[in-house]
C-alpha cells in the first residue's frame, strides 16, 4: 500500500487540480476534505482530458455519487472542461490513508480519529483492542457500544469518565 | 463468457437478496443500535451487489451472445430479471423470522463470504479480485458482529438459547448449497476466476463449530429435510417471488422512473 502516491504532481496543472480538490468536503463528514479522507488516488492529464481517480471508503457508501458530482462541478467552475472521474476498488481504501491534518480536524469536530494500526479489522470476538480516546475529555476509559454507527465509516463509543457518547471513525 | 457472467451474477444476487431481506429490519430492529448495525450491513451488501452487477452489465454488453438484450445496466439486472434468472442460494431468501434466525442467517452467510472472498482476492479476473478485496474488509465486520450475537443469544437465557437452537434446526439444511458447485462454479474454479466451493467447507465448518461451542449450541445430527433443488441454478423456494414482487414493483409498473 505504501507505493500508492498520495500526491502525484507531474505538472503544474495536476498540482492545481489537487489544490482545488482540497476545497471539496466529504458530504457526510464535512469537516474533512476528500483529500484528507484519502479517497482521491491520482490526478492525470491525458491530452486535453483531466482525469480524477477516486476510490470508495465502503462498497455501499451513498456519498460517492455526490462526491463525483461535486468534483465535476468544482472543476468546471475553475474552467476545466473535459473531466473524467474514474472509480477504482483496488487497492482497497484504508483509514491509514487519512492525512494527519484530517485526524486533527476530526478530533476537533468531536469524532475520535482512527487509530494508526489496523486493530478492528479482525474476527477476534468480544475484543475491543486498543483504547479509543474520548475526543471531549481525552480519557482512554471508554467503551464500545456498537461497531456500526450513523454512517458506514463510524462506530459508537461512550466515555466512562465524562459520559459523553461519541463517534469513532473506525479502522478499515 | 457465459460462465463468467453467471458467476458474477451469482455473487451479486446473493448480496442483493440478503441485503433486501435484512433491510426489512430497518426501523424495526430490537434496539436502536442493532437496527443501525443491520442497516449498515445492508448498505455494504447492496454496495457489493452493485459492484458485481456493474461488472456483469459490462460483460453482457460486450458479449456477442444474443441471449441478453444490449444496454444492460446494474438496474435492469436487479429490477427486470425473473425469479428463475436469479442465482442466489436458498438460504439468503429465507424469511427473517425472529432476531435469532436473522442473526444466524447472517452468520452462516458471512462466514461463507469470508472464506470465499479470501480465495477470490486471488482470482485471475482483476475485477472480481478487486471487488472481493474491497468487500472482505466489510465482511470481516459482519462476521464478527453476527458471531458475537450468536454467542450472546446461545449462551444467554433459556429462551434465547432455545430460539437460537430452533433457528439452527430451520436453517441448517440450506447451508450445504454453499459447497455444492453449480456448473458455472466448476468452470470458474477450473479457469481460475472463481473459487472451488467444496474446498471452503472445512474452514466454514470449523468457524461454525467454534462459535457454536462457545454459544453452547449444537449442529443438528440430521437434516430436517433434504433439499433437492438449487437456487444457484434458478430453482428457488416460494419466498423469492414475493421478495422480487416488492423489490421490482416500481420499475415494472413505472419503467425507467428515477428518484
What does this structure look like?
The complex is a heterodimer of chains A (172) and B (259). Chain A has three helices and seven strands, in the order H-E-E-H-E-H-E-E-E-E. Chain A is an alpha/beta fold and 172 residues long. Chain A folds into two domains: 12-93, 2-Layer Sandwich (GMP Synthetase, Chain A, domain 3); 97-169, no CATH class. In chain A, helix 2 (64-77) links the parallel strand 2 and strand 3 (83-87). The relative contact order of chain A is 0.15. Chain B has 259 residues and is mainly alpha-helical. Chain B has a single domain, classed as Ferritin, core subunit, four-helix bundle (Ferritin), CATH 1.20.1260.10. Chain B contains ten helices and no strands. Chain B has helices spanning 2-23, 32-62, 74-79, 90-93, 99-120, 126-154, 158-171, 183-191, 201-214, 238-253. The longest helix of chain B is centred in the first third of the chain and has 31 residues, at 32-62. The model of chain B has no long low-confidence stretch (mean pLDDT 95).
Rg of chain A, Å, rounded: 17 Å
Q: Indicate the percent of residues in helices of chain B.
A: 55-70%
Count every beta strand of chain A, where a strand is a DSSP E run of 2 or more residues. Answer: 7
Shape of chain A: elongated
Q: Given the helix and strand composition of chain B, which structural class is it? A: mainly alpha
Average pLDDT rating of chain B: 95
Name the helix and strand elements of chain B from N-terminus to C-terminus, one letter apiece. HHHHHHHHHH
What's the shape of chain B?
globular
Fraction of residues in β-strands of chain B: under 5%
The major β-sheet of chain A equals: 4 strands, mixed
> Structural class, judged by helices and strands of chain A?
alpha/beta
Q: What is the succession of H and E elements of chain A?
A: HEEHEHEEEE
Helix fraction of chain A by DSSP (H/I, runs of at least 4): 10-25%
Helix count of chain A? 3
Going by CATH, the architecture of the largest domain in chain A would be: 2-Layer Sandwich
Q: Would you tell me which CATH topology of chain B applies?
A: Ferritin
- The assembly state of the depicted protein chains is heterodimer
Amino acid at each position: 500500500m505504501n507505493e500508492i502516491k498520495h500526491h502525484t504532481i507531474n505538472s503544474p496543472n495536476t498540482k492545481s487540480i489537487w489544490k482545488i480538490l482540497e476545497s471539496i468536503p466529504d458530504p457526510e463528514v464535512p469537516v474533512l476534505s476528500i483529500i484528507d479522507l484519502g479517497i482521491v488516488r491520482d490526478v492525470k492529464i491525458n491530452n486535453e482530458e483531466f482525469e480524477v481517480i477516486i476510490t470508495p471508503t465502503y462498497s455501499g457508501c451513498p456519498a460517492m455519487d455526490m462526491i463525483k458530482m461535486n468534483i465535476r462541478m468544482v472543476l468546471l467552475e475553475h474552467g476545466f472542461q473535459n473531466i473524467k472521474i474514474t472509480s477504482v476498488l483496488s487497492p482497497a481504501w484504508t483509514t491509514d490513508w487519512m492525512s494527519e491534518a484530517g485526524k486533527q480536524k476530526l478530533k476537533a469536530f468531536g469524532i475520535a480519529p482512527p487509530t494508526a494500526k489496523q486493530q478492528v479489522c479482525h474476527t477476534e470476538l468480544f475484543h475491543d483492542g486498543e483504547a479509543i480516546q474520548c475526543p471531549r475529555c481525552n480519557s482512554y476509559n471508554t467503551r464500545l457500544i456498537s461497531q456500526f454507527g450513523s454512517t458506514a465509516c463510524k462506530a459508537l463509543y461512550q466515555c466512562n469518565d465524562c459520559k459523553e457518547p461519541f463517534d469513532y471513525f473506525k479502522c478499515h | 463468457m457465459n460462465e463468467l457472467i453467471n458467476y458474477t451474477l451469482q455473487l451479486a444476487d446473493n448480496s442483493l437478496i440478503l441485503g433486501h431481506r435484512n433491510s426489512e429490519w430497518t426501523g424495526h430492529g430490537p434496539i436502536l443500535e442493532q437496527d443501525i448495525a443491520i442497516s449498515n450491513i445492508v448498505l455494504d451488501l447492496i454496495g457489493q451487489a452493485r459492484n458485481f452487477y456493474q461488472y456483469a452489465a459490462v460483460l453482457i454488453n460486450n458479449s456477442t451472445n444474443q441471449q441478453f438484450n444490449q444496454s444492460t445496466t446494474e438496474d435492469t439486472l436487479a429490477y427486470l430479471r425473473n425469479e428463475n434468472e436469479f442465482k442466489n442460494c436458498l438460504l439468503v431468501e429465507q424469511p427473517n423470522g425472529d432476531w435469532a434466525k436473522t442473526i444466524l442467517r447472517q452468520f452462516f452467510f458471512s462466514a461463507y463470504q469470508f472464506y470465499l472472498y479470501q480465495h477470490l482476492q486471488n482470482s485471475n479476473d482483476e475485477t472480481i479480485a478487486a471487488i472481493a478485496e474491497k468487500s472482505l474488509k466489510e465482511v470481516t465486520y459482519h462476521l464478527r458482529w453476527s458471531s458475537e450475537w450468536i454467542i450472546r443469544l446461545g449462551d444467554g437465557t433459556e429462551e434465547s438459547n432455545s430460539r437460537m437452537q430452533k433457528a439452527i434446526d430451520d436453517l441448517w439444511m440450506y447451508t450445504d448449497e454453499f459447497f455444492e458447485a453449480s456448473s458455472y462454479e466448476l468452470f470458474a474454479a477450473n479457469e481460475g476466476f472463481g473459487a472451488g466451493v467444496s474446498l471452503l467447507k472445512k474452514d466454514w465448518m470449523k468457524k461454525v463449530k467454534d462459535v457454536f461451542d462457545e454459544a453452547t449450541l449444537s449442529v443438528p445430527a440430521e437434516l430436517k429435510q433434504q433439499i433437492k433443488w438449487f437456487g444457484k441454478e434458478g430453482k428457488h423456494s416460494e419466498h423469492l417471488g414475493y421478495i422480487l414482487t416488492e423489490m421490482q414493483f416500481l420499475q415494472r409498473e413505472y419503467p425507467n422512473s428515477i428518484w
